[in-house]
Amino acid sequence: MAVLLTGGLGYIGSHTAVELLNSGEEIIILDNLSNCKREVADKIREITNKDFKLYIADLLNRADIEKIFEDNSISEVIHFAGLKAVGESCEKPLEYYHNNITGTLILLETMRKYGCNKIVFSSSATVYGNPKTVPITEDFPLSTTNPYGTTKLFIEQILQDTVKAYPEWSCINLRYFNPVGAHSSGKIGEDPNGIPNNLMPYINLVAAGKLDHLNVFGNDYDTKDGTGVRDYIHVVDLSLAHLKALEKLRNMQGIEVYNIGTGEGYSVLDIVHAFEKANDLTIKYEIAPRRVGDIATCYADATKAKVELGWKATKSLEDMCKDAWNYTKNNIK
Ligand code: WQD
Fold first, then answer.
1. Radius of gyration of the chain from its Cα atoms, rounded to whole angstroms
2. In this structure, what are the phi and psi dihedrals at residue 232, rounded to the nearest 5 degrees?
3. Cα–Cα distance for residue pair 13/87, rounded to 1 Å
4. How far is CA 53 from the centre of its chain?
5. Ligand 1 pocket test: which of 291, 320, 321 has the largest number of ligand atoms within 8 Å of its C-beta?
6. Site to substitute for ligand 1 among 142, 150, 199, most atoms within 8 A of C-beta
7. Nearest Cα to 61, choosing from 15, 110, 96?
8. What's the pLDDT tens digit per position in 77-101?
9. CA nearest to 125, candidates 114, 138, 112, 116
10. Which of 242, 233, 260 lies closest to 320, judged by CA?
11. Residue 49 to residue 31: CA distance in whole angstroms
12. Quick one: which of 230, 190, 232, 218 has its CA closest to 287?
């Protein structure tokens, strides 16, 4: 029996693939290569010294997905695949809804057809919208501010309804906060196309001399230094949360949701300074206007994951900054 990872060559999928293989799981990766490179598969094999089946296929292609379930014995699915750029989702909402929602529906229908009824879904803290207070617990009200976030919320709802209708199903939604960092080998990491939107990849390209300076989006928020506060989580810690979720999934029925963050908030300037200190570099930055749609502060209460999954983040901000830069400097072209 194998665990199917949709989007398994992407940033979070590839790190989770490594941890699953290291823990002795059999995995199958499905990816359409829309935001990653095929070579990531070789890197996963190099790091783990283990092999797995790889399907280059798209969730929107039902025949391809059915063939994967037909030819393999899939016990659980971890569903990472999806378009994820907030800004782009506002420009191309129909593409985002079609890809993320229709893709998920085809996946769920195929799972149902082949009797696979266990799924871990990559959700996001974005489903909390602009929270009234912090830290955020899983029972906070849900709302979104962009089509990308809405696809995450809709998929959570689709999964709720599915599990409610089919009692033999079980599902865990993991709400990720801000994943950063890379595998300590420096072989896999975050590799966004074009100019990055997210803070950590942007800082890395400034450090590498590919971008002149970081624009700090606003220094007049109601935070300790006026810049936005987020809960940054090391991608390896995040990957390990999937292993715990899988363990839980195998022994439960129904649906659960967990915040996956450290529970600590760091400002943009905290990140800049931590990156400089960890890597002995200087990051040039300028204060720029606020970015539309940004919120002041967002960080998790991750107690539920600790109590129910036995998971807790262990890596420090220094680890996140060091590992991110180690990956960038080894891979920058
Ligand atoms: C972090 C902080 C920015 C870039 C987004 C999505 C979310 C999730 C992760 C993904 C903010 C500031 C950033 C820059 C800056 N999804 N910043 N200059 O916005 O918290 O979350 O990514 O799949 O759904 O919304 O992350 O890294 O973009 O920003 O000052 O060049 O850094 O204003 O305070 P965010 P981020």
1. 19
2. -85, 130
3. 22
4. 22
5. 291
6. 199
7. 110
8. 999 999 999 999 999 999 999 999 9
9. 138
10. 233
11. 21
12. 218
Name the DSSP letter for residue 115: T
**How far apart are the C-alpha atoms of 221 and 69, rounded to whole Å?**
49
pLDDT averaged per 10 residues, the chain (length 333): 98 98 98 96 98 98 98 98 96 98 99 98 98 98 97 98 98 98 98 92 98 98 98 99 98 98 98 98 98 96 98 98 98 87
- How far is residue 140's CA from residue 318's CA, in Å, rounded to a whole number? 30
Task: Please check whether residue 12 is in contact with residue 235, taking contact to mean a CB–CB distance below 8 angstroms.
Answer: yes
Residue pair 176/238 in contact (Cβ under 8 Å)? The answer is yes
Measured distance CA(292)–CA(286) in Å, rounded: 17
214 C-alpha to ligand 1 centroid (Å) = 13
| Cis-peptide into 131, omega within 30 deg | no
215 pairs with which residues across the strands?
A: 286
**One of 148, 176, 221, 232 is an active-site residue; which one?**
148
Cβ proximity of 22 and 43 under 8 Å: no
- Distance between CA atoms of residues 155 and 283, nearest Å: 38
DSSP state of 128: B
pLDDT at res. 260: 99
Number of Cβ atoms within 10 Å of the Cβ of 22:
14
The sign of the dihedral angle between the CA atoms of 324, 325, 329, 333 is positive
218 and 226 Cβ atoms separated by less than 8 Å = yes
CA distances from 51 to 76, 83, 154, 203, 205 (A): 18, 27, 34, 34, 32
Q: How far apart are CA 325 and CA 313, in angstroms?
A: 20
**285 CB less than 6 Å from ligand 1?**
no
Instruction: Specify whether 128 is catalytic.
Output: no
CA 85 to ligand 1 centroid distance, Å: 10
pTM over 0.70: yes
84 Cα nearest atom in ligand 1 = 23
Altogether, the residues listed in the chain come to a count of: 333
